[in-house]
Design brief:
144 residues, mainly beta, four-stranded antiparallel sheet, three-stranded antiparallel sheet, elongated, disordered N terminus
Length: 144
């Protein structure tokens, strides 16, 4: 497994004659399918004391294309970006946008179910997840 190389990097190890070769390879490779890209959107998680603040950078994504859910402490943000019928009818000579979908998630062990809120503003989704008071799971048993 250690000898495996991502497909788009295979040729780079074989040829090193042109110094700007990596620049052109990276410039023309889509960030959504690049081996160096871990996900289609960036997500940050901040511990703000009484709650968690999760931000996801979703430029160009509409509210109805986003699904946010909390399931047993796992917060998932899913995006299903589709072209509109209006865009499909245009006669493009060159087009770099496309349909894509991605899901990012984070486990928040003390996330409360009540008081969740989310807002999308200027391409940034902000989700506020309040913390619940952690209950002790240890029970002492008296020995007879």
């Amino acid at each position: 497994m250690a000898s495996m190389v991502p497909y788009n990097r295979y040729g780079r190890g074989l040829r090193r004659s042109f110094p700007f070769e990596d620049f052109f390879d990276d410039f023309f490779t889509s960030p959504l399918v690049s081996a160096s890209s871990d996900a289609a959107f960036q997500m940050n998680v901040e511990d703000a004391g009484e709650s968690y603040v999760v931000t996801a950078h979703l430029a160009g994504v509409n509210r109805d294309e986003i699904d946010v859910e909390l399931n047993e402490g796992r917060l998932s943000i899913s995006v299903d970006k589709k072209e509109t019928e209006e865009e499909k009818g245009k006669n493009y000579l060159h087009k770099e946008t496309r349909e894509w979908s991605a899901t990012r998630g984070v486990y928040l062990k003390d996330a409360a179910v009540e008081g969740l809120s989310a807002k999308l503003e200027d391409g940034v989704l902000t989700v506020n997840v309040p913390k619940q008071v952690e209950k002790a799971n240890v029970t002492k048993i008296a020995i007879e």
